[in-house]
């Protein structure tokens, strides 16, 4: 890229969905001849992709905007917090523009206004810039994840109205990408070296419901825009396929045969959030918790190696001691493999803020600690059972101390890892077989299989 190209700094905050937005914006910026630079002082302007999910994320986003303004001065804000423009304007009246999540065109307009793209005779010969995220993408674009894994966003928005969540008001109702678009993108990613596809959305089980599960053609075969059929298509690509944000609707049973056949990873990320029917009702959660344990048992009978990951909120308004104990009992009975938990914290604009009987801060923290202790025991016991077993793992990095890899049970960033003590010579993106030698509450230690 010419040194005369306008230079953009980019700060990406938030969840994997925001990361995918960042990748799309960066891809478009590059396609239009902007240079992406890693330092504030080298940039002509800075784009900050924000998160607004919980108060801590709002603060982190505001801090990032403040830092960019201080270090650079020309700042364009996008992402979830962009929906609360007044909050940003109040703190930082000097930001150049504020746009919301997935509003790629507005971000690009704001960038054009601040920094007109340079006419580049080479780039201008390139046929029209890619339609971002569409089936006609001419390559895989810019990825912020390492080369060997990628998030595959299958839809935006959500049809649920969980009382603690403001995502539907920020991102709107569910809008699914037609299945052929997703499969074409996945195919390009795999051709580009991606070994693991992480399917993300707000509600993967609901995929396609807005499109009435419309059938589309891919590789000469009809696929419906629906979770099971999407998985069948993805299974054709020969990469690891990992499902996130799956709600326990009955049709989740349909993907079990794909897992047993080794076509998609035996892994489900299901955000249960709680186990007490009354609290779940107050949370307005989808799914039927009464049947959850039964379903988990049936899934495990069908797929013995199934890894279940979940997230929970403790200290939701009105949560009694007995309801909290109910949650701990569920945790012990369900023996989930991976669990994340948060002490409830109000999110501005969420309906749950109006609920009576907030749990005192200290009690919330206390419950969180007890929750994590119970889960650490469950997790340690489950991981201990893996000692002596041979696992296929995907290498993330390697160095003088060995390699860090992940098995089918470990999603990047959020789960544990498998440390390979003799993996110094391995390469990121490589699949190898290892024998597990030791385990702690989260991670495994292993050696290459001789
Ligand atoms: S399912 Fe509930 S928590 Fe998840 S995005 Fe939708 S409304 Fe929010």
Provide an overview of this structure.
The protein has three domains: 122 residues, 3-Layer(aba) Sandwich (Rossmann fold), CATH 3.40.50; 235 residues, Alpha-Beta Horseshoe (pyruvate-formate lyase- activating enzyme), CATH 3.80.30.20; 60 residues, Nucleic acid-binding proteins (OB fold (Dihydrolipoamide Acetyltransferase, E2P)), CATH 2.40.50.140. The longest helix has 24 residues. Helices cover 32% and strands 22% of the residues. Strand 10 and strand 11 form a beta hairpin. A five-stranded parallel β-sheet has the order 2-1-3-4-5, with helices on both faces. A five-stranded mixed beta barrel has the order 16-17-18-20-19. A three-stranded parallel β-sheet has the order 6-9-12. With 450 residues, the protein is α/β, with parallel strands linked by helices. It contains 13 helices and 20 strands. The radius of gyration is 23 Å and the shape is globular. Iron/sulfur cluster binds next to helix 6.
